[in-house]
Specification:
heterodimer, A: mainly beta, four-stranded antiparallel β-sheet, 0% helix, B: mainly beta, six-stranded mixed β-sheet
Chain lengths: 114, 113
């Protein structure tokens, strides 16, 4: 099973709302990632968790708050977002956080901020 | 130095033809070069990858050619099929950067029947 699942598929939220994105994998991977992807653009790395510890934060605004409750789950908590944060949010996982590890991506959550 | 430049931005190929997408990088510390394929509404999926100690890697109809001295690599899709129509991203990473992928800007490939 090489599946990364993400919920919800779509999310519409206002600028004052608080919501969370969820990601799950059961491949025994110890690295998990959040990416943001705008239309017709490449994915942009936001966060990397390695062995449930935050190892990379690409200077993401604090209105995005990641959480890794265990090795299979990754959450992204959203608060006071801006319309420009509307994008596809992708979760990925890999065996380890090393260059030559294949990253398996989920289908993404399409977020619209009104 | 962290950039990966990808061209063309879009590509139209007839069924059965060869699709060629090119990427160039500056940072000689990169040591892993994957290609990802993304269909609309889906996340990217690894297609094929290469290390800089290899000049070519082939998997089925997909071939990566790697030119270390020119700091360029390319994806060739032989016998292109309409089902290959997708966006292709090249990427690069370094061993000491914790899995961080630097993506090219993407190429939207359309294979006409």
């Amino acid at each position: 099973d090489t599946e990364v699942t993400q919920t919800p598929k779509h999310l519409v939220m206002g600028m004052t709302n608080k919501k969370s994105l969820k990601c799950e994998q059961h491949m025994g991977h110890r690295a998990m990632y959040w990416y943001k992807q705008k239309a017709k653009k490449p994915p942009e790395l936001m966060f990397v968790y390695s062995y449930e510890k935050l190892s990379i934060n690409e200077s993401v605004p604090s209105r995005f708050s990641p959480e890794c409750p265990n090795s299979s789950l990754l959450n992204l908590h959203l608060h006071a977002l801006q319309p420009e944060d509307s994008a596809l949010y992708l979760c990925a996982s890999s065996q380890g956080a090393r260059a030559q590890e294949t990253q398996y991506f989920g289908p993404g959550t399409r977020l619209l901020v009104l | 130095q962290q950039q990966v430049k990808q061209s063309p931005q879009s590509l139209i190929v007839q069924k059965g033809g060869i699709s060629i997408i090119n990427c160039a990088y500056e940072n000689t510390a990169f040591d892993y070069f994957p290609w990802y394929q993304q269909f609309p509404g889906k996340g990217p999926a690894l297609l094929i990858a290469i290390r800089p100690d290899v000049s070519e890697k082939k998997e089925g109809r997909f071939t990566i050619s790697f030119n270390k001295s020119a700091k360029q690599f390319s994806l060739h899709i032989m016998d292109s099929q309409p089902g290959d129509s997708a966006t292709y991203f090249c990427a690069a990473s370094r061993g000491n950067q914790g899995g961080k992928l630097i993506f090219g800007q993407g190429t939207e490939l359309s294979v006409k029947p």
